[in-house]
Amino acid sequence: MMNTNATGRFITFEGGEGAGKTTQIKFLADHLREQGHDVLTTREPGGTPEAEKIRELLVQQDGGNWDPLSECLLFFTARRMHVETLIKPALAAGKTVISDRFFDSTIAYQGYGHGFDLDLIAHVQKISIGDFKPDLTFLLDLPVEDGLRRSQKRLSDAGSNEDKFENLDLAFHQRLRDGFLKMAQLDTARFRIIDAKNSIEEIRKSIIEAML
Ligand code: T5A
């Protein structure tokens, strides 16, 4: 299931707030490097200078009040730059690329979470990045309350103001979790669902096992 225009492997991590993506991406990147792979880690929204500028508009409280279509277009504008200028060239050079979030986050947050039209998201996706998709996606699945607790702790420890999406209500985060699980169940070839309630070490081991 490799991207046809690439020789490397594209792996993404998805999940709700505080699911442990950042923590586990570091472990997986270290593991793959020990095995001799050339690994590039990146994140969305962001990953390139242009996309990082768009990130500020999207995730900070004072970034602006975008209507749903504008917000969707901004995510995919950032994503197109990310795919064309960073991800595809890295894959073509034989690297393993690991991204903290990708288009599944837009479907989950803007679509299932906020109720924006899923067909319209699919249309914008097609225009922006065509059929490009990850080879493998880890969904770190966690009960909503646990994720928000972890995420708030990380943000306050770091003194970060990137809390726009974390501040949404519990019902939103439940729709988000259900949406991610639905996507994973519909595409079992690409997704691996990981129980993120477990300890950091247990999750690390299950991700490495799922890579075998
Ligand atoms: N967004 C993004 C959209 O709405 N649409 C889109 O298309 C895209 C791409 C930014 C926001 O943008 C939204 C989604 C987001 O709200 P982000 O920067 O990925 O996205 O923000 P978060 O998902 O909020 O990132 P977090 O850092 O909060 O979560 P992580 O990376 O999943 O979790 P991590 O590893 O930082 O861990 C959080 C805390 O929990 C601890 C860690 O040490 C850390 O303190 N932890 C654990 N504690 C106990 N047990 C474990 N197993 C633990 N694993 C980690």
* Topology as a string of helices (H) and strands (E): EHEHHEHHEHHEH
Poorly predicted runs are none
Distance between the termini: 14 Å
Q: Report the count of strand segments.
A: 5
Tell the overall outline.
Answer: globular
Write down the Rg.
16 Å
Tell me the strand percentage band.
Answer: 5-15%
Bound molecules: P1-(5'-adenosyl)P5-(5'-thymidyl)pentaphosphate
Average pLDDT, all residues: 93
Helix content: 55-70%
Q: Outline the biggest β-sheet.
A: 5 strands, parallel
Number of helices: 8
Strand order of the largest sheet: 2-3-1-4-5
- The class by helix and strand makeup works out as alpha/beta
Please, what is the oligomeric state?
Answer: single chain
Detail the topology: elements first, then pairings.
Layout: E1 10-15, H1 21-34, E2 39-43, H2 49-59, H3 68-92, E3 96-100, H4 103-113, H5 118-129, E4 136-141, H6 144-158, H7 170-186, E5 191-195, H8 200-211
Parallel strand pairs: 1-3, 1-4, 2-3, 4-5
The protein binds P1-(5'-adenosyl)P5-(5'-thymidyl)pentaphosphate.
Plain-language structure description:
This protein is of the alpha/beta class and 212 residues long. Helix content is 55%, strand content 13%. α1 packs across α8 (200-211). The protein is globular, with a radius of gyration of 16 Å. The two termini are 14 Å apart. The site of P1-(5'-adenosyl)P5-(5'-thymidyl)pentaphosphate (T5A) has 27 residues, from α1, α4, α6 and α8.
